[in-house]
Design a protein that fits this description.
- With 178 residues, this protein is α/β, with parallel strands linked by helices.
- It is built from 6 helices and 4 strands; from the N terminus they run H-H-E-H-E-E-H-H-E-H.
- Strands 1-2-3-4 form a 4-stranded parallel beta sheet, sandwiched between helices.
- The N and C termini lie far apart (55 Å).
């Protein structure tokens, strides 16, 4: 029996391609491809919005700076800075003045991975930007919320901030035509 499983596993390894390393350029291109697909299938990409949580929240900031068609974004506890690498050559804080659409950042005041001083630096960078979309961006901090406060399957879930954040997201997208 084990020989059969080993043979099957070896065959699957030969059939499945090895995953390609993830790069910033790669995930931005993947999102561009999603937008192109949506447009080619009747989606209204003049109302392009993006939202994401955690790593996806970081991507919201980066994609809003990358794609000229982004009308608005909502970043849920997305890291604003970190060590520079091939995957992260630029950070949301570096791109704060280059947004194509305004972004609402929703952060937890008790998030050990995203220090409040970093959130304050982002607020300052957005406010001081000459870019209208960056200047129109906003950040809301839920003072008692940890990281992943919207993840209702985790102990970090906080009902009140999660529900309030969802309302803020819906209003943000409505306000900005998404």
């Amino acid at each position: 029996m084990n020989a059969d499983i080993d043979a099957l596993t070896a065959e699957l390894d030969n059939l499945l391609p090895a995953p390609q390393p993830l790069t910033r350029r790669g995930f931005l291109a993947d999102l561009d491809a999603c937008v192109a697909w949506a447009k080619s299938h009747g989606g209204d990409t003049t109302r392009l919005g993006i939202t994401g949580f955690c790593w996806g929240g970081r991507v919201v900031w980066l994609y809003a700076a990358h794609h000229p068609g982004v009308k608005a974004g909502v970043a849920w506890y997305g890291r604003l800075t970190s060590a520079t690498s091939g995957l992260t050559p630029k950070h949301p804080l570096d791109m704060a003045g280059k947004l194509n659409g305004p972004v609402l950042g929703l952060y937890g005041g008790q998030d050990p991975g995203i220090p409040l001083d970093t959130v304050e630096k982002m607020k300052t960078a957005l406010a001081q930007s000459a870019n209208p979309a960056s200047k129109a961006s906003a950040i809301h901090v839920y003072s008692d919320a940890p990281h992943a406060f919207h993840a209702d399957y985790r102990p970090s879930y906080r009902k009140a901030p999660a529900e309030d954040g969802w309302k803020r997201m819906a209003e943000w997208f409505r306000k900005h035509g998404v």
